[in-house]
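REQUEST FORM: STRUCTURE PREDICTION
Request ID: SP-0412
Submitted by: Lab K.M.
Chain count: 1
Length (residues): 181
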Amino acid sequence: MKILITGASGFIGSFFVEEALNRGFSTYAGIRKSSSKEYLLDNRIKFIDLNYADPAVLSNQLKQFKEENGKFDFIIHNAGVTKCNDKRDFDKVNVGFTQNFVKALVEGDMIPKKFIYMSSLSAWGSGNRETLAPIMLNDKPRPDTAYGASKLKAEQYIQSIENFPYIFLRPTGVYGPREKD
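STATUS: Completed
RESULT:
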């Protein structure tokens, strides 16, 4: 079974890669050529550099991959930005690049069995601080940052794609080994 993990060189992505290898997946690490491979040293890892900014190039890259290797069974889309100098870059990367990727997967008949989108609790908001009531699925989302708003927009786009097998993960702030902030 083939799995693609985008944002694989990052704090969370590198742990996803390790776990995929531990579970016996043929593991593709989606990283830019300029990204560090400090935590991606296992020789079983296959690397792929996808151009999310250019839809035509991205479509061709996925088409070529499919011709040579077949489809991915699973994709964990973990690529994105958490900090930006210009807040518009949250939408450009977290929303626009995700839209380009999903469109290319659909158009290229590359829809995986599951597409796991790494979102954030920030997309839903922090919940009721007075009552401490748990956040429920039928609550209205209230993103609390530009980052969170961009993650919610990407989720909403993914949900709009008919018959697209998605799962959203919305972790809180994540800390631990390899985390640099």
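NOTES: The mean pLDDT is 93.
Reviewed by: T.R.
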